[in-house]
Structures are given as C-alpha cells and as structure tokens.
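Side project, low priority. Logging it here so it doesn't get lost.
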Amino acid sequence: MNDADDLHACIAAAKAVYEKQSVLRCPYFNEMVTLNADGFNHLLYKPNRQPRNVKEQQLKLRLLKKGLRILQRAGTVQEERLCFEKVGKQRSDGLSATKEVRYWAFHDIVGETKRFKMRVIVRKVGDGKIAFWSVMPHGKINRQRLYDEGIGDE
C-alpha cells in the first residue's frame, strides 16, 4: 500500500471514529465538548489552510481515538492559552474581525509497548462552545516516529 492509499484509509477510519459522536463529556469542564468539522479539518490542514505533510496527517489521525479517550477522562489541564485571532473572511476594507480564543491542553501517557506522552487540545472561540481542536505527541513531531499502530488498535 502506498502513502496516498494509506492516508485515505487513515482518513476514512478516523472520520468514522470522529463522526460516531458529535459531542463527548469532559470531566474537567463538567460539560460537553463538541466534535465539529473544524477540529477534524485541523488534523489535515495547518491554520493557514495549507495541507500538513502526509506523515503528520497520518500521525494525527492515528492518535485521534486515544486522544478522544484522554478527553473523556481529563480531570486536570496542563496548558492554557488565551489570545485574539482573526475569525471569518476579510472585510472589503482589508480588515478582519477578531475574537478571544482560549485553548486548553490535556496530557497523558499512552501506549502498551511503546509508551509516550501525547496531548489533546480543545478550544473555545468567543462565547461559543468548547470544541476538539487537535491531538499530537508531546514534543516535536519529527522526533516522534514511534506511533504507527492502526486507528482501531488498542
């Protein structure tokens, strides 16, 4: 199987996991976290809408199931960030609206034989809902070539 076929298989499997539920309960917030298209899209594309490289996409997609499980039992936040970001399309005057965006990261150690630390990011834009945003190994992605199990693997 070539990289493109493997990527398409990863996307299909991850999408099935992601679309199985539209929300999940996070104990830290004591409320539901939304699983929307923005979060899934962020696994495949950078914030500037450029596609992530194939290996990075595969890594994020393979970590998704474990990441959602971390979120369902997260009781302590390890990172929090508040910033202002552009939202929506640029207006005719060349300016863009901005909103307050809050990010939270939850860390956990996962894996049976290859144990490593990973983090799950959720975010809230303005007064909106808390939504899943991303999943990644904790640390630089190029140095973490250790997760190659399939999405369905436990």
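Brief comment: Helices lie at 3-19, 37-44, 54-73.
Revisit when time allows.
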